[in-house]
Amino acid sequence: MSCDSCGSDRILSLNAKCSDRCTASFNGVHREGYAPSVANVSGGDYVTPSVCLECGKVQGSFPVEGPEGFDKLVCSECGDGPDAWKRSPIQGDDCHNECRGYYVPEEEA
């Protein structure tokens, strides 16, 4: 295999199984759980990028679609976003305030 960009054969292929213990950030939204499904990079239990050690390019055709499930979440009751210092919530989690709301995608609030 040679690099898509510079032609070097110094390609490091990674295959890391993280199961449901992956932490990912996209557009300022953080998630914990399974690896987000992103072409050339990850999906399900695995993170599988190949990187050129000469130029640093991640191998594969880009741009690709962003991962699903990274909608900005807000509380259905008070409209607050998640507390940045706590675990990142997923849709349906209770709000960190005492308003009895739960997190929904911003477009649905």
Mind explaining what this structure looks like?
It is a single chain. The protein is mainly beta and 109 residues long. The chain has two domains: 1-65, no CATH class; 71-109, no CATH class. 0% of the residues lie in helices and 30% in strands. It contains no helices and ten strands. It has strands at 11-13, 16-17, 22-26, 29-33, 35-38, 42-44, 46-47, 50-52, 73-75, 103-105. Strands 2-7-6-5 form a four-stranded antiparallel sheet, with no helix packed on it. It has a two-stranded antiparallel sheet with strand order 1-8. A hairpin with a 3-residue loop joins strand 5 and strand 6 (42-44). The N and C termini lie far apart (48 Å).
Domains (count): 2
Mean pLDDT: 83
Strand content: 25-35%
Mass-distribution shape: elongated
Helices, by number, come to 0
Overview features:
single chain, four-stranded antiparallel sheet, elongated, 2 domains, mainly beta, about 110 residues, two-stranded antiparallel sheet
